[in-house]
Amino acid sequence: MLTELDQLQAAALADIAAADDAPALEVARVRYLGRQGTLSALGERMKTLSKEERPAAGKKLNEVRTAVTAAFDAAAQGLSARAESSALVSVDVTLPGTPLLPIGALHPLTQLQDRAVQIFRRLGFALADGPDVDDEFHCFDALNTPADHPARNEQDTFYLPDGRLLRTHTSTVQIRAMETQPPPVRIIAPGAAYRRDEVDASHLAQFNQMEGLVVDEGITLADLKGTLEYFLRELFGAKTAIRFRPHFFPFTEPSFEIDVKSPALRGGERWLEVCGCGLVDPAVYDQVNQRRGDQAYDSEKYTGFAFGFGLDRLAMILLGLPDIRLLIENDVRFLEQFK
Question: Phi and psi of 170, rounded to 5°?
Fold first, then answer.
């Protein structure tokens, strides 16, 4: 049997070495190492040997099995390595990789809001937030809006069956901030607002605002002017021209609208309205004090200013958009321009 085992080992190693692919190697493995293979058959014949022959034959059988198994493992690794090398031959490693998923980006409105927040942060403003569904007191009464004002009409405002409404501006956040904290106050309130506007190239029923409020001792119109001029020049460029036009808002007195003209914008020689603002009307402080049950906002001691602008309109101006609806249609071809 020893001679037979030597011959078997030589034949097995030759067949394994001759296998040039994985299927051929598997055939050789099954022939020699399989459950019904040659080595298993010789192992069964051990029973027929005499006690004197078994130790030497058993040792030899184990040596042959070990050698054949090692040869098979080495051959399998070699075939795998050659297959990998062959696959890499056709790969140009200098080409850029192909991502499995497209890389997303922030929406242009979110980018603009973040940019505006960063500018106001440098001026010491804190972020404030409030509910999108509010009541008439915070939307109108606290802001000195009379009962017969057109904005309170159902044709202009989204009312809910329980009497609440979708806020028409984020000025509601200013009132809620004053209700919960005494002066000084220095906040900005970005968020959605809702009005029954006919949707067209310049109007949406839901849009985005950013409003701000400052209340402290000694606040004057000069503080309002300096704050907003700084913000607008940071946003539109240092060469931006800014003008204040008298206007009327129920909650500020005096009130202004702000126009800008900047060479960085398309049609840079044209004035564009971007913001409304003014000094807080004392009637607003009276409403807040009544709600608070104290005189924390004493109009003889404290003054302040408020402002607000539409982020959608600023985005249209900065990006040169002809239609505000482009911002809500989620057309990836459009949004990819602003990654």
Answer: -90, 15
